[in-house]
From TrEMBL:
EC number annotated for this UniProt entry: 3.2.1.-
Broad class of the protein's primary localization: endoplasmic reticulum
Subcellular location, record wording: Endoplasmic reticulum
Cofactor: Ca(2+)
Biological classification of the source: Eukaryota, Viridiplantae, Streptophyta, Embryophyta, Tracheophyta
GO cellular component terms, semicolon-separated: endoplasmic reticulum quality control compartment; membrane
Organism: Salix koriyanagi
The name this protein goes by in its record: alpha-1,2-Mannosidase
């Protein structure tokens, strides 16, 4: 604190820095500040460039970019959920599968797992009922509606009931090799682990529910009054296998669903362009109907636009009493 000098040069996405990434992006969603988006964008590209190795994310030296610790930690399991919010669903699925693999290998997710040796860390074999894997499973199911994620949720619930349930609640596990429990239950088990598992199996009240969860699982409403201004650009990169920032491609993010006003503006701009090109002779009204997998913009019964996660637009239109389908790349 006196000199401002770094004493630890190894960086990653887990303990000590995880909430930094999460709050950069979520604060951008809440307040619409473009500088927060640019900071997150830069950090995310750096993560993909220096930390990612196949489906795993190791740690690296901040000065050289070289790998330091080849390990998976339970706190890293939040990352696929954040990737879903950003729109990088392919990478989220790949990472999530590896966390599920380790969970199934031990019955729960150990605090630290050594990737280079494919074995437990000798002193961090515990499982304190952390919520991160359940959280990412919830987000991925919301994004894809793939029932496999519900099966993962069932696996998590069964493990919790089998290994951690005790008379007074649910107990942390001291050692995942013996499943010896401790006389301890963190509050985040109720605030997050149980909450995300519940939402995974019953998300009925999320319809028209425009909120975002904090890193501790508390919901905050996304209100237009809080928005500093809508960002001038909102074009996340196609980040799944980014190696060179100059070669990135633009795509949309799932979090656009929290900005119906922005989607409305995008729709109006493109509809005006289509009208000028005489693809559409008349435009009636435009409404935004939020959906988890895509956003549908209804113009009228003959003209419907679908914005997918990569900002490609399918346009159904009619001309001379014949119906046509056209593809428009909005990126």
């Amino acid at each position: 604190m006196e000199t401002g000098e770094w004493i630890e040069h190894s960086s990653g996405i887990g303990a000590g820095v995880d909430s930094f990434y999460e709050y950069l992006f979520k604060a951008h969603i809440l307040f619409g500040k473009e500088d927060l988006w640019r900071m997150f964008h830069s950090a995310y590209l750096a993560v993909q460039k220096y930390f990612r190795h196949g489906p795993w994310d190791h740690e690296a030296d901040m000065r050289t970019g070289k790998a330091t610790y080849w390990q998976l930690t339970s706190l890293q399991a939040f990352w696929p959920g954040l990737q879903v919010l950003v729109g990088d669903i392919a990478a989220a699925n790949t990472s999530h599968c590896e966390f599920v693999y380790v969970w199934k290998k031990f019955g729960v997710l150990p605090e630290r797992y050594l990737l280079d040796h494919q074995m437990l860390h000798p002193t961090e074999k515990y499982y304190p009922l952390r919520p991160e894997l359940a959280e990412s499973t919830f987000y991925l199911y919301q994004a894809t509606k793939d029932p496999w994620y519900m099966e993962v949720g069932e696996t998590i619930v069964n493990s919790l009931n089998s290994y951690t349930k005790v008379e007074g609640g649910f107990a942390s596990i001291r050692d995942v090799t013996t499943m010896q429990t401790e006389d301890h239950m963190h509050s985040f088990f109720l605030a997050e682990t149980c909450k995300y598992l519940y939402l995974l199996f019953d998300d009925s009240f999320l319809v028209d529910w425009n909120h975002i969860f904090t890193t501790e699982g508390h919901p905050l409403p996304v209100l237009s009054a809080w928005q500093d201004r809508l960002p001038e650009i909102y074009i996340p990169s196609n980040w799944t296998y980014v190696k060179d920032e100059k070669k990135t491609k633009r795509s949309s993010a799932m979090s656009l669903q929290v900005w119906p006003a922005l989607m409305q503006d995008m729709a109006n701009n493109w509809l005006r362009a289509l009208a000028m090109s005489r693809m559409l002779k008349a435009i009636t009204s435009v409404s935004v109907m939020k959906s988890v997998e895509l956003t549908q913009l209804a113009v009228d019964e003959d003209h419907v636009l679908f914005f997918t996660s990569r900002l490609h637009c399918t346009v159904n239109y009619s001309r001379n009493r014949r119906k046509y389908t056209g593809q428009v790349d909005l990126s």
